[in-house]
Each structure stands twice: as C-alpha cells, then as structure tokens.
Amino acid sequence: MADRVPQTYGNHTRFDPLFHFFALPVIMLSVIVTLVHCLHRRNWFSIWLVIFSIAILVVTMKARLYVTKLQDRIIRMEERQRLYALLPETLRARIGELSEAQLVGLRFASDAELPGLVEETLAKKLSRAQIKKSIKVWRPDYFRV
C-alpha cells in the first residue's frame, strides 16, 4: 500500500475498469443497437430484444446500486463505532443525528479533525460533498468498490 497515490477529494472517486469501461458501455450500446434494429425490422422478436436488453441494463445497474448501498451501510456502522470512540461525551450523544450520507462523508476525516468536523456538520447540516471538501487531513479508503 505504500506505493499508492495519497487520496484526496480530487482523486478519491474509484472506477472499476471491467464494469465502468467494458460491461456498462457494451450493455448500453446493446440497448441502442436493439432499438435501431427494432426500428428497421419491427417484429415480435426485435421488440423482445429491446425489452431484454433494457432488462439486462436494469439488472446491471441495480446490482451496482446494491453493492454501493451495502458498503454505505457497513461504513455507517464503522463510523458510528469510530465516532463513539473519538468524540467527547457532548457530541457522542448526537451521533444519531448524523445521516447516512454524512457518516459516509466523515469516513475520510482524520481522527484529529473528526470532532470539529462533526460539530460543524451538525451545526450547518453539511452534505456529503461539503464534508469531503472541508477535510484537511484525508484518511484514505482504498477498498471502496
């Protein structure tokens, strides 16, 4: 892990080459191809191909959404535990006020700046993106899908 580029707000987005640059484009192109084919040769089979290709696209996108939602739930659990260990008692009582999106954003904050950032997040109701932009010392997450 020592050879990894330090993670920041600008480079923390992660792409899975097989998904983002192969499977998804091929499936999206297949939907377009089947639509064009259906327009030129309208019959029950062409219509079925359009419906089937759209179904494959939906299944692919839902599978991706399920994975990221599960990760967010795990992050939420990990961050609540981390917050409980790092926050002073006054802020610890307010952990439940943080949304899932806020907890996911806070995971990148270093332990030292976490209490101040949690206080600011609660006071200003910061979004996930605003939280990430506020982080000064980035705590990387190289395992996100």
Describe, in short, the structure shown:
The chain has six helices and no strands.
Morphology: elongated
Total number of β-strand segments? 0
Rg: 21 Å
Poorly predicted runs of 5 or more residues: none
Taking the alpha carbons of the first and last residues, their distance comes to 17 Å
Number of domains: 1
Percent of residues in beta strands? Answer: under 5%
Order of helices and strands: HHHHHH
Mean pLDDT across all amino acids: 92
Overview of this protein structure:
It is a single chain. The chain is mostly helical. The protein has one domain. 66% of the residues lie in helices and 0% in strands. The chain has six helices and no strands. Helix 1 packs antiparallel against helix 2, helix 2 packs across helix 4 and helix 4 runs parallel beside helix 6. The chain is elongated, with a radius of gyration of 21 Å. The two termini are 17 Å apart. The model has no long low-confidence stretch (mean pLDDT 92).
